[in-house]
Amino acid sequence: MIAYRNPLVSAFWFALGLSLATPAVAIDAGRVGPVYGIREPDFLDEIAKTVKAKVDSGEWNKLQEEARRRATAGLANPRPIAGITTATTRRTWLFDPSVVLSKSIPDASGRVMYPAGTRVNPLDTVSLPQPLLFFDGRDPQQIAVALGMFQHYKGAVTPILVAGSWQKLGRDWKRQVYFDQQGKMVQQLGIQAVPALVTQEDKALRIEEFTP
């Protein structure tokens, strides 16, 4: 959803809201001069005429096509995640994915399985299916690292971009490539530099940043 911030538009809707919220009071102040009909063009009619003129001239189709092009380009090439750099040193740590439940979790019959306040580690019941590799898809060295990881793990590694075109790499590699939307995963895991490899170690995640 796009929120419009044009002050004139905001003022228009604010004034409209006030007019609808204020009770109408009729006062007969008498006639103080000649009365004329309203000659200003209807606001909606003017908008309709403007739109029709753009449609007839073909400008409307051009605007729509440009909007589609920008949207497609934005999806194929998301903005790089801010604050993520290329690793210059090796850094390794363990991440505990446990969470404290804010609400109780019932089973299928409605009985409480985990009461609120319980500390739950998802790795107690499921395992990380395969290593996660975070990297910059614009960097040829990091792309080479990713290809080396595919070979090492026999393809069983999930590539996740922090920058670059997931669509292009997916086409080139003929496999699914992901993008960490809004940097939520790197933020949660504490990753500050890439390439970074995430693997499971017992009931924790081992995270390793290393130089490409």
Structural class by sheet pairing and helices: alpha/beta
Beta-strand percentage?
A: 15-25%
Whole-angstrom Rg: 29 Å
- CA-CA gap between termini: 38 Å
CATH topology term of the domain at 85-97 and 126-209:
Glutaredoxin
CATH superfamily of the domain at 85-97 and 126-209: Glutaredoxin
Strand order of the largest sheet: 2-12-11-7-8-9
Please describe the biggest sheet, giving its number of strands, its sense, and whether it closes into a barrel. 6 strands, mixed
The CATH architecture of the domain at 85-97 and 126-209 comes to 3-Layer(aba) Sandwich
Principal-axis shape:
extended
Helix content: 25-40%
The level-1 CATH class of the domain at 85-97 and 126-209: Alpha Beta
Work out the helix count: 6
The overall average pLDDT, rounded, is 80
- Please write the string of helix (H) and strand (E) elements: HHHEEEEEEEHEHEHEEE
Brief summary:
With 212 residues, the chain is an alpha/beta fold.
Q: What order do the helices and strands come in, and which of them pair?
A:
Layout: H1 7-21, H2 43-57, H3 59-76, E1 85-86, E2 91-95, E3 99-100, E4 105-106, E5 112-114, E6 119-120, E7 132-136, H4 140-152, E8 158-163, H5 166-173, E9 178-179, H6 184-189, E10 193-194, E11 196-201, E12 204-209
Descriptive overview:
The chain is α/β, with parallel strands linked by helices and 212 residues long. It has helices spanning 7-21, 43-57, 59-76, 140-152, 166-173, 184-189; strands at 85-86, 91-95, 99-100, 105-106, 112-114, 119-120, 132-136, 158-163, 178-179, 193-194, 196-201, 204-209. Among the domains are: 40-76; 85-97 and 126-209, Glutaredoxin. Helices cover 35% and strands 20% of the residues. The strands form four sheets. A six-stranded mixed beta sheet has the order 2-12-11-7-8-9, with helices on one face. Strands 1-10 form a two-stranded parallel ribbon. The chain is extended. The model is unreliable at 1-29 (pLDDT under 50).
